[in-house]
Model the fold of this input.
Amino acid sequence: MDHTDAVIVGAGVAGLSLAVALREKGTEPLVLERAPGVGGRCATRRVQGRPVDHGVPFLHGRHPAFLASLDAVEDGTRLDGWPAIRAGGGLPCQPEAFEGADRLLAFREGLTRFPKHLARGRNVRLGVNVTALRLLPDAAAIEVVVEGAAPLRAPVVALTMPAPKADQLLQPLAAASRAVAGVLPLLRQIRTIPCLAVIACYDAAPRALEWDVCYPLSSTMVHAIIRDSAKREADGPLTLVVQGRPRFSREYLAAPVEEWAGELLWEAGEFLGDWVERPSLRQEHAWHHARVEPATELSAPIATRLENGAVLALCGDGFSSAMGLEGAFLSGRSLADRLETEGVLPAASTRKDSA
Ligand SMILES: Cc1cc2nc3c(=O)[nH]c(=O)nc-3n(C[C@H](O)[C@H](O)[C@H](O)COP(=O)(O)OP(=O)(O)OC[C@H]3O[C@@H](n4cnc5c(N)ncnc54)[C@H](O)[C@@H]3O)c2cc1C
Done:
Protein backbone atom coordinates (compact mmCIF):
# COMPACT_ATOMS: atom_id res chain seq x y z
CA MET A 1 0.00 0.00 0.00
CA ASP A 2 1.30 3.47 -0.96
CA HIS A 3 2.21 5.71 1.98
CA THR A 4 2.63 9.47 1.71
CA ASP A 5 2.91 12.34 4.24
CA ALA A 6 -0.25 14.10 3.09
CA VAL A 7 -2.98 13.41 0.54
CA ILE A 8 -5.05 16.20 -0.96
CA VAL A 9 -8.27 15.13 -2.65
CA GLY A 10 -9.08 17.52 -5.50
CA ALA A 11 -6.89 19.59 -7.83
CA GLY A 12 -9.11 22.65 -7.99
CA VAL A 13 -7.68 26.01 -6.95
CA ALA A 14 -8.07 25.21 -3.21
CA GLY A 15 -6.30 21.83 -3.41
CA LEU A 16 -3.50 23.21 -5.57
CA SER A 17 -3.02 26.30 -3.44
CA LEU A 18 -2.78 24.00 -0.40
CA ALA A 19 -0.23 21.83 -2.24
CA VAL A 20 1.91 24.87 -3.13
CA ALA A 21 1.76 26.24 0.43
CA LEU A 22 2.63 22.84 1.97
CA ARG A 23 5.59 22.53 -0.41
CA GLU A 24 6.80 25.96 0.76
CA LYS A 25 6.70 24.53 4.29
CA GLY A 26 8.74 21.46 3.36
CA THR A 27 6.01 18.84 2.79
CA GLU A 28 5.29 17.51 -0.70
CA PRO A 29 1.70 16.23 -0.69
CA LEU A 30 0.13 13.87 -3.19
CA VAL A 31 -2.84 15.47 -4.97
CA LEU A 32 -5.52 13.10 -6.30
CA GLU A 33 -7.89 14.45 -8.95
CA ARG A 34 -10.65 12.46 -10.56
CA ALA A 35 -10.89 14.61 -13.71
CA PRO A 36 -8.43 14.29 -16.60
CA GLY A 37 -7.13 17.82 -15.93
CA VAL A 38 -6.62 20.26 -13.06
CA GLY A 39 -8.75 23.31 -12.21
CA GLY A 40 -12.13 21.99 -11.06
CA ARG A 41 -14.64 24.78 -11.47
CA CYS A 42 -11.92 27.03 -12.91
CA ALA A 43 -12.69 25.17 -16.13
CA THR A 44 -11.67 25.64 -19.74
CA ARG A 45 -12.67 23.21 -22.49
CA ARG A 46 -11.71 23.21 -26.15
CA VAL A 47 -14.56 23.77 -28.57
CA GLN A 48 -13.64 23.54 -32.26
CA GLY A 49 -10.01 23.84 -31.19
CA ARG A 50 -10.51 27.05 -29.22
CA PRO A 51 -10.60 27.49 -25.44
CA VAL A 52 -13.91 28.31 -23.76
CA ASP A 53 -14.21 29.09 -20.03
CA HIS A 54 -17.47 27.41 -19.02
CA GLY A 55 -17.07 27.68 -15.21
CA VAL A 56 -15.91 30.87 -13.55
CA PRO A 57 -15.76 33.43 -16.42
CA PHE A 58 -12.92 35.63 -15.10
CA LEU A 59 -10.62 35.83 -12.09
CA HIS A 60 -11.03 38.58 -9.52
CA GLY A 61 -9.69 39.36 -6.09
CA ARG A 62 -7.67 41.68 -3.95
CA HIS A 63 -5.65 39.70 -1.41
CA PRO A 64 -1.90 40.33 -1.96
CA ALA A 65 -1.05 36.59 -1.89
CA PHE A 66 -3.74 35.83 -4.49
CA LEU A 67 -2.64 38.70 -6.73
CA ALA A 68 1.03 37.66 -6.42
CA SER A 69 0.10 34.14 -7.46
CA LEU A 70 -1.82 35.46 -10.50
CA ASP A 71 1.18 37.64 -11.39
CA ALA A 72 3.44 34.60 -11.30
CA VAL A 73 1.58 32.91 -14.20
CA GLU A 74 4.15 33.06 -16.99
CA ASP A 75 2.71 31.20 -19.92
CA GLY A 76 -0.64 32.93 -20.31
CA THR A 77 -1.52 36.06 -22.26
CA ARG A 78 -2.99 38.34 -19.60
CA LEU A 79 -6.18 40.25 -20.28
CA ASP A 80 -5.98 42.71 -17.39
CA GLY A 81 -9.26 44.32 -16.44
CA TRP A 82 -11.41 41.76 -18.34
CA PRO A 83 -14.43 42.05 -18.51
CA ALA A 84 -13.98 45.74 -19.32
CA ILE A 85 -17.38 46.33 -20.93
CA ARG A 86 -20.44 45.20 -19.00
CA ALA A 87 -24.06 45.52 -20.00
CA GLY A 88 -27.53 44.64 -18.79
CA GLY A 89 -27.67 46.41 -15.43
CA GLY A 90 -27.92 43.19 -13.39
CA LEU A 91 -25.43 42.03 -10.77
CA PRO A 92 -22.64 39.44 -11.02
CA CYS A 93 -22.56 36.60 -8.46
CA GLN A 94 -20.09 38.60 -6.38
CA PRO A 95 -21.11 42.27 -6.88
CA GLU A 96 -18.03 43.48 -4.99
CA ALA A 97 -15.97 42.25 -7.95
CA PHE A 98 -16.91 45.43 -9.80
CA GLU A 99 -16.74 47.88 -6.92
CA GLY A 100 -13.18 48.93 -7.66
CA ALA A 101 -11.05 47.13 -5.06
CA ASP A 102 -10.83 43.81 -6.95
CA ARG A 103 -8.42 43.23 -9.78
CA LEU A 104 -10.05 41.53 -12.78
CA LEU A 105 -8.18 39.23 -15.11
CA ALA A 106 -8.59 36.61 -17.82
CA PHE A 107 -6.15 34.66 -19.98
CA ARG A 108 -6.45 34.46 -23.76
CA GLU A 109 -5.54 30.76 -23.61
CA GLY A 110 -8.24 30.05 -20.98
CA LEU A 111 -8.52 30.49 -17.22
CA THR A 112 -7.02 27.05 -16.52
CA ARG A 113 -3.66 28.73 -17.06
CA PHE A 114 -3.90 29.67 -13.39
CA PRO A 115 -4.50 26.18 -11.88
CA LYS A 116 -2.02 24.71 -14.37
CA HIS A 117 0.56 27.18 -13.09
CA LEU A 118 -0.18 26.15 -9.48
CA ALA A 119 0.12 22.47 -10.42
CA ARG A 120 3.51 22.83 -12.12
CA GLY A 121 6.11 20.70 -10.31
CA ARG A 122 3.56 19.38 -7.80
CA ASN A 123 2.78 15.71 -7.37
CA VAL A 124 -0.66 15.49 -9.01
CA ARG A 125 -2.28 12.23 -10.14
CA LEU A 126 -5.11 12.77 -12.61
CA GLY A 127 -8.03 10.44 -13.28
CA VAL A 128 -8.04 9.16 -9.68
CA ASN A 129 -11.50 9.05 -8.13
CA VAL A 130 -11.51 8.78 -4.33
CA THR A 131 -14.49 6.64 -3.34
CA ALA A 132 -14.07 6.17 0.43
CA LEU A 133 -11.98 6.98 3.47
CA ARG A 134 -11.20 4.54 6.28
CA LEU A 135 -9.83 5.13 9.73
CA LEU A 136 -7.00 2.68 10.40
CA PRO A 137 -7.29 1.21 13.91
CA ASP A 138 -3.60 0.40 14.35
CA ALA A 139 -1.85 3.43 12.82
CA ALA A 140 -2.18 7.24 12.88
CA ALA A 141 -3.32 7.28 9.29
CA ILE A 142 -6.36 7.47 7.03
CA GLU A 143 -6.79 4.98 4.22
CA VAL A 144 -7.81 6.61 0.96
CA VAL A 145 -9.75 4.23 -1.26
CA VAL A 146 -9.54 4.96 -4.98
CA GLU A 147 -11.41 3.47 -7.91
CA GLY A 148 -9.56 0.73 -9.77
CA ALA A 149 -6.24 0.93 -7.89
CA ALA A 150 -4.66 0.04 -4.56
CA PRO A 151 -5.62 2.25 -1.60
CA LEU A 152 -3.21 4.82 -0.18
CA ARG A 153 -2.57 5.78 3.41
CA ALA A 154 -1.50 9.10 4.90
CA PRO A 155 -1.38 10.72 8.36
CA VAL A 156 -2.97 13.89 6.91
CA VAL A 157 -5.83 13.87 4.39
CA ALA A 158 -7.37 17.09 3.09
CA LEU A 159 -10.67 17.16 1.21
CA THR A 160 -11.13 20.12 -1.14
CA MET A 161 -14.23 19.27 -3.15
CA PRO A 162 -17.55 21.18 -2.73
CA ALA A 163 -18.90 20.72 0.81
CA PRO A 164 -21.84 18.41 -0.09
CA LYS A 165 -19.41 16.06 -1.86
CA ALA A 166 -17.08 16.01 1.16
CA ASP A 167 -20.13 15.27 3.29
CA GLN A 168 -20.89 12.18 1.17
CA LEU A 169 -17.34 10.86 1.67
CA LEU A 170 -17.34 11.51 5.41
CA GLN A 171 -20.81 10.22 6.29
CA PRO A 172 -19.85 6.52 6.40
CA LEU A 173 -16.93 7.38 8.74
CA ALA A 174 -19.09 9.21 11.25
CA ALA A 175 -20.38 6.05 12.94
CA ALA A 176 -16.81 4.99 13.77
CA SER A 177 -15.43 8.42 14.67
CA ARG A 178 -16.88 11.02 17.02
CA ALA A 179 -14.40 13.54 15.60
CA VAL A 180 -15.78 13.05 12.08
CA ALA A 181 -19.35 13.14 13.41
CA GLY A 182 -18.45 16.50 14.97
CA VAL A 183 -17.31 17.93 11.63
CA LEU A 184 -20.50 17.10 9.70
CA PRO A 185 -22.82 19.72 11.25
CA LEU A 186 -20.26 22.43 10.40
CA LEU A 187 -19.90 21.13 6.86
CA ARG A 188 -23.68 21.15 6.44
CA GLN A 189 -23.79 24.88 7.17
CA ILE A 190 -22.27 25.40 3.74
CA ARG A 191 -24.92 25.42 1.03
CA THR A 192 -24.17 25.50 -2.67
CA ILE A 193 -25.88 26.98 -5.71
CA PRO A 194 -26.13 25.08 -9.01
CA CYS A 195 -25.58 26.69 -12.40
CA LEU A 196 -26.70 25.37 -15.77
CA ALA A 197 -24.40 26.66 -18.50
CA VAL A 198 -24.71 26.61 -22.29
CA ILE A 199 -21.83 27.22 -24.70
CA ALA A 200 -23.15 28.49 -28.03
CA CYS A 201 -21.00 29.21 -31.13
CA TYR A 202 -22.21 31.25 -34.11
CA ASP A 203 -20.32 30.98 -37.41
CA ALA A 204 -22.30 33.88 -38.84
CA ALA A 205 -23.61 36.15 -36.11
CA PRO A 206 -25.92 38.81 -37.61
CA ARG A 207 -24.51 41.59 -35.47
CA ALA A 208 -21.44 42.43 -33.42
CA LEU A 209 -21.84 42.61 -29.66
CA GLU A 210 -20.06 45.49 -27.95
CA TRP A 211 -19.93 44.11 -24.41
CA ASP A 212 -17.82 41.41 -22.75
CA VAL A 213 -20.44 40.32 -20.20
CA CYS A 214 -24.16 41.02 -19.99
CA TYR A 215 -26.12 40.56 -16.76
CA PRO A 216 -29.78 40.87 -17.84
CA LEU A 217 -31.61 42.72 -15.11
CA SER A 218 -35.12 41.54 -15.91
CA SER A 219 -34.54 37.85 -16.69
CA THR A 220 -35.74 35.16 -14.31
CA MET A 221 -33.77 32.47 -16.20
CA VAL A 222 -30.49 33.97 -17.42
CA HIS A 223 -27.97 35.22 -14.89
CA ALA A 224 -25.20 36.13 -17.31
CA ILE A 225 -24.27 36.03 -20.98
CA ILE A 226 -20.53 35.96 -21.39
CA ARG A 227 -18.95 36.79 -24.74
CA ASP A 228 -16.20 34.24 -24.33
CA SER A 229 -14.81 34.93 -27.83
CA ALA A 230 -13.94 38.47 -26.68
CA LYS A 231 -11.10 36.82 -24.72
CA ARG A 232 -9.70 35.05 -27.80
CA GLU A 233 -8.00 35.88 -31.08
CA ALA A 234 -10.40 37.79 -33.33
CA ASP A 235 -10.52 35.15 -36.09
CA GLY A 236 -12.95 32.69 -34.43
CA PRO A 237 -16.73 32.44 -34.29
CA LEU A 238 -18.79 34.42 -31.80
CA THR A 239 -18.94 32.20 -28.71
CA LEU A 240 -21.33 32.89 -25.86
CA VAL A 241 -21.59 31.17 -22.48
CA VAL A 242 -25.09 31.55 -21.04
CA GLN A 243 -25.38 30.91 -17.30
CA GLY A 244 -28.73 30.11 -15.68
CA ARG A 245 -29.94 31.88 -12.57
CA PRO A 246 -29.76 29.88 -9.31
CA ARG A 247 -33.50 29.25 -9.05
CA PHE A 248 -33.87 28.28 -12.69
CA SER A 249 -30.79 26.02 -12.44
CA ARG A 250 -32.14 24.30 -9.33
CA GLU A 251 -35.55 23.70 -10.98
CA TYR A 252 -34.08 22.27 -14.19
CA LEU A 253 -31.08 20.39 -12.76
CA ALA A 254 -32.77 17.00 -13.25
CA ALA A 255 -34.53 17.92 -16.51
CA PRO A 256 -33.27 16.76 -19.94
CA VAL A 257 -30.44 18.94 -21.27
CA GLU A 258 -32.46 19.73 -24.44
CA GLU A 259 -35.12 21.36 -22.31
CA TRP A 260 -33.01 23.72 -20.22
CA ALA A 261 -30.44 24.52 -22.90
CA GLY A 262 -33.27 25.48 -25.28
CA GLU A 263 -34.95 27.62 -22.59
CA LEU A 264 -31.73 29.47 -21.77
CA LEU A 265 -30.96 30.28 -25.41
CA TRP A 266 -34.57 31.32 -26.03
CA GLU A 267 -34.39 33.72 -23.08
CA ALA A 268 -30.97 35.05 -24.18
CA GLY A 269 -32.59 35.61 -27.60
CA GLU A 270 -35.21 37.84 -25.96
CA PHE A 271 -32.37 40.23 -25.16
CA LEU A 272 -30.14 39.82 -28.20
CA GLY A 273 -32.41 38.66 -31.04
CA ASP A 274 -33.84 35.27 -31.98
CA TRP A 275 -30.67 34.29 -33.94
CA VAL A 276 -29.25 33.34 -30.50
CA GLU A 277 -31.59 30.31 -30.49
CA ARG A 278 -29.84 28.86 -33.58
CA PRO A 279 -26.15 28.36 -32.80
CA SER A 280 -23.92 26.49 -35.25
CA LEU A 281 -22.68 24.45 -32.28
CA ARG A 282 -23.96 24.00 -28.76
CA GLN A 283 -22.53 22.29 -25.67
CA GLU A 284 -23.79 22.23 -22.12
CA HIS A 285 -22.58 21.72 -18.60
CA ALA A 286 -24.63 21.30 -15.43
CA TRP A 287 -22.69 22.55 -12.41
CA HIS A 288 -24.37 20.94 -9.41
CA HIS A 289 -22.31 22.98 -6.94
CA ALA A 290 -21.20 26.05 -8.88
CA ARG A 291 -20.87 28.48 -6.00
CA VAL A 292 -21.42 28.80 -2.28
CA GLU A 293 -24.64 30.48 -1.20
CA PRO A 294 -23.62 33.79 0.43
CA ALA A 295 -23.68 33.82 4.25
CA THR A 296 -23.48 30.02 4.49
CA GLU A 297 -19.68 29.90 4.16
CA LEU A 298 -17.38 29.17 7.10
CA SER A 299 -14.66 31.70 7.79
CA ALA A 300 -11.77 29.22 8.03
CA PRO A 301 -10.73 25.72 6.95
CA ILE A 302 -11.19 22.74 9.27
CA ALA A 303 -8.44 20.50 10.66
CA THR A 304 -9.35 17.90 13.23
CA ARG A 305 -7.37 15.13 14.89
CA LEU A 306 -9.17 11.78 14.69
CA GLU A 307 -9.24 9.08 17.37
CA ASN A 308 -6.24 7.23 15.87
CA GLY A 309 -4.08 10.41 15.71
CA ALA A 310 -4.53 11.05 11.97
CA VAL A 311 -5.62 14.50 10.81
CA LEU A 312 -8.64 15.15 8.62
CA ALA A 313 -8.71 18.58 7.00
CA LEU A 314 -11.12 20.46 4.76
CA CYS A 315 -10.73 23.58 2.65
CA GLY A 316 -12.30 25.05 -0.49
CA ASP A 317 -14.49 27.97 -1.47
CA GLY A 318 -16.89 27.30 1.44
CA PHE A 319 -14.10 27.79 3.99
CA SER A 320 -13.15 31.44 3.55
CA SER A 321 -15.10 34.66 3.96
CA ALA A 322 -13.55 35.82 0.65
CA MET A 323 -15.70 33.16 -1.13
CA GLY A 324 -15.43 32.25 -4.81
CA LEU A 325 -12.17 31.40 -6.47
CA GLU A 326 -10.12 33.82 -4.39
CA GLY A 327 -11.65 32.30 -1.25
CA ALA A 328 -10.72 28.81 -2.48
CA PHE A 329 -7.12 29.93 -3.00
CA LEU A 330 -6.90 31.62 0.41
CA SER A 331 -8.49 28.66 2.22
CA GLY A 332 -5.73 26.38 0.91
CA ARG A 333 -3.01 28.69 2.20
CA SER A 334 -4.76 29.21 5.48
CA LEU A 335 -5.09 25.43 5.98
CA ALA A 336 -1.35 24.96 5.35
CA ASP A 337 -0.57 27.61 8.00
CA ARG A 338 -2.90 25.89 10.44
CA LEU A 339 -1.35 22.45 9.87
CA GLU A 340 2.09 23.96 10.42
CA THR A 341 1.07 25.85 13.57
CA GLU A 342 -0.45 22.71 15.04
CA GLY A 343 2.75 20.74 14.36
CA VAL A 344 0.94 18.32 12.08
CA LEU A 345 3.34 18.47 9.15
CA PRO A 346 6.10 15.86 9.20
CA ALA A 347 8.67 18.31 7.81
CA ALA A 348 7.72 20.91 10.42
CA SER A 349 8.26 18.46 13.28
CA THR A 350 11.59 17.33 11.76
CA ARG A 351 12.69 20.96 11.61
CA LYS A 352 11.69 21.43 15.25
CA ASP A 353 13.54 18.25 16.26
CA SER A 354 16.73 19.32 14.56
CA ALA A 355 16.62 22.89 15.87
C1 LIG B 1 -20.57 28.74 -13.62
C2 LIG B 1 -19.69 29.24 -12.52
C3 LIG B 1 -19.54 30.61 -12.32
C4 LIG B 1 -18.71 31.07 -11.28
N1 LIG B 1 -18.53 32.42 -11.11
C5 LIG B 1 -17.65 32.86 -10.19
C6 LIG B 1 -17.33 34.25 -10.08
O1 LIG B 1 -17.84 35.08 -10.81
N2 LIG B 1 -16.43 34.63 -9.12
C7 LIG B 1 -15.79 33.70 -8.32
O2 LIG B 1 -14.93 34.09 -7.51
N3 LIG B 1 -16.09 32.39 -8.40
C8 LIG B 1 -16.99 31.97 -9.31
N4 LIG B 1 -17.27 30.64 -9.40
C9 LIG B 1 -16.81 29.73 -8.33
C10 LIG B 1 -15.35 29.33 -8.45
O3 LIG B 1 -15.12 28.73 -9.69
C11 LIG B 1 -15.11 28.33 -7.30
O4 LIG B 1 -15.39 28.99 -6.08
C12 LIG B 1 -13.69 27.81 -7.21
O5 LIG B 1 -13.18 27.47 -8.47
C13 LIG B 1 -13.73 26.60 -6.25
O6 LIG B 1 -12.46 25.99 -6.18
P1 LIG B 1 -12.27 24.73 -5.21
O7 LIG B 1 -10.88 24.29 -5.39
O8 LIG B 1 -12.75 25.09 -3.85
O9 LIG B 1 -13.28 23.61 -5.73
P2 LIG B 1 -13.32 22.85 -7.15
O10 LIG B 1 -12.88 23.75 -8.24
O11 LIG B 1 -14.68 22.25 -7.23
O12 LIG B 1 -12.22 21.72 -6.97
C14 LIG B 1 -12.50 20.47 -6.39
C15 LIG B 1 -11.80 19.39 -7.20
O13 LIG B 1 -12.00 18.13 -6.54
C16 LIG B 1 -12.19 17.14 -7.53
N5 LIG B 1 -12.90 16.02 -6.89
C17 LIG B 1 -14.16 16.05 -6.40
N6 LIG B 1 -14.47 14.85 -5.88
C18 LIG B 1 -13.38 14.07 -6.04
C19 LIG B 1 -13.08 12.71 -5.69
N7 LIG B 1 -13.99 11.94 -5.08
N8 LIG B 1 -11.85 12.22 -5.98
C20 LIG B 1 -10.92 12.99 -6.60
N9 LIG B 1 -11.16 14.27 -6.95
C21 LIG B 1 -12.37 14.82 -6.67
C22 LIG B 1 -13.01 17.85 -8.60
O14 LIG B 1 -12.93 17.17 -9.85
C23 LIG B 1 -12.36 19.24 -8.61
O15 LIG B 1 -11.30 19.30 -9.55
C24 LIG B 1 -18.06 30.15 -10.44
C25 LIG B 1 -18.20 28.77 -10.67
C26 LIG B 1 -19.01 28.32 -11.70
C27 LIG B 1 -19.12 26.84 -11.94
User: Anything to note?
Assistant: The first helix runs from residue 13 to 24.
